[in-house]
Amino acid sequence: MKVFRLLVLLAVLILGLIIGAVNMTAMSINLLFTQLNTSVGVALIAALLIGVVVGAGLVLVSVVIPLYSQLRRANKSAAAPSAPVVPSQSFDGR
Fold first, then answer.
1. What is the pTM of this model?
2. pLDDT tens readout for residues 46-87
3. 17 near 39, Cβ under 8 Å?
């Protein structure tokens, strides 16, 4: 499994390098108070990376954290000791 992860990481790295090398056209990104001069390849890779980070953050906030808190509550209720059961004794009245 570690070898597979390493191969996927290497493939994505090579793909990013190819995208960056093929798209060397200069471009400028005008922000409100500043201007960034970069190449198209770097801008594409940065946009993809920002998208991954924002998407992962949204999944973390909307899915993972609520499920983790639900799991923590379930573990607390399962680990809570129940009240001791006292065996009932029958009295005949004798």
1. 0.64
2. 898 999 999 999 999 999 899 988 989 888 888 777 666 666
3. no
Q: What is the distance of C-alpha 93 from the center of its chain?
A: 67
Closest by CA position to 15, among listed 37, 48, 63: 48
Q: Give the Cα separation of 21 and 42 in Å (integer).
A: 9
Classified as helix, coil or strand, 13 is helix
What is the DSSP annotation of 20-70? HHH---EEEEE-SS-EEEEEHHHHHHHHHHHHHHHHHHHHIIIIIHHHHHH
Tokens read off for 86: 């006292």
Residue 5: pLDDT band (50, 70, 90) is confident
Which class for 43: exposed (0-12), middle (13-18), buried (19 or more C-beta within 10 A)? middle
Residue type, 11: A
